[in-house]
Amino acid sequence: MARPTTPATTMTAIKAAQASAGSTEGGIGLGGTGAGHRTVAAAATEAIRRRILDGTYATGAKLHQDMIAAELGISRIPVREALFQLDAEGLVRIEPQRGASVAPLSRERMVETLELRAMLEPYLLRNSAPHLTDADFAALARILGDYGEAIAAQAANRWGELNTEFHLGLYARANRPRAQAIVITLLRESDRYTRLQLSQSIDYQRRAQREHAKLLRLCRTGAVEEAAALMRAHILHVSDSLGRALDAAAGPGPATG
After folding, report:
1. pLDDT at residue 208 above 70?
2. How far is residue 34 CA from its own chain's centroid?
3. Distance (Å, rounded) from C-alpha 42 to C-alpha 188?
4. CA-CA distance, 89 to 94, in Å (whole number)?
5. pLDDT of 157 higher than 70
6. Fewer CB under 10 Å: which end of the chain, C or N?
7. Is 78 helix (H, G, I), strand (E, B) or coil?
8. 30 and 17, same structural domain?
9. pLDDT digits over 110-154, tens only?
10. CA angle, corner 115, sides to 114 and 117, nearest 5?
11. Residue 21 binned pLDDT confidence (cut-offs 50, 70, 90)
12. Exposure of 23 by Cβ count < 10 A (0-12 exposed, 13-18 middle, 19+ buried)?
């Protein structure tokens, strides 16, 4: 696995977490078990997640705890915890005797993830949209502006991040913390699929922009049920189009008969 450069923002977060844990330049140490330790593990999780999503760690790449710990300047313990968290998110695969690697894209997992989103996100939108404020709508409009700029610049590394930010912004007033926590995990896992789907066609990119803008407009005008129906269709379209793309990439199955 090639040794990437750690972004300055990631290193800043990790150093801040180490300071909270009372660590020194040698990392958090093997004995760190408090809140600061958990913060270091969270920062390590985010750093590894970003590297998987932006392709720095390619599908199937081995994820060596010692190497990652050295890159991030921390001990192996938070790295190990990060890998288990990312395994739960579907980004990493941990196998006995073989260790951790970047999980392959799975059609079955993609379909399940997006079907769950299609059930939960309209529910959250129905509960949140009536309570969104003018400030919320202004923030959502800014996200869509940034999203449009990222599409125009073909900055694929930002597509999933901004898509997640927009969706979560729509649900910010839902007051359904358990459902929101589940959707956050599902959106993180969807990031790889979203990038792949958008990269297939400029038409998919334009459709996503149009539907996002319409969702914002419907919520602003109080058309909540129409917005919820559009949200479900918006998510399921990704599932359908990406399913076809993954099937095509897999090629024809074995001959039968």
Report:
1. yes
2. 26
3. 14
4. 12
5. yes
6. C
7. helix
8. yes
9. 899 999 999 999 999 999 999 999 999 999 999 999 999 998 988
10. 60
11. very low
12. buried
Domain-embedded: residue 2: no
Identify whether residues 119 and 244 lie together within a single domain. Answer: yes
Predicted TM-score (pTM) of the model is 0.72
User: Do 63 and 135 fall into the same domain?
Assistant: no
Would 148 be classed as within a structural domain?
A: yes
DSSP notation for 239-257: HHHHHHHHHHHH-------
Domain check: are 89 and 143 in the same one? Answer: no
Q: Among candidates 198, 1, 200, which has minimal Cα distance to 92?
A: 1
**Residue 84: how many CB atoms within 10 A of its CB?**
15
Q: Is the residue at 254 inside a domain?
A: no
CA distance 116 to 190: 11
Domain count, the chain: 2
H or E stretch at 13:
helix 8-21
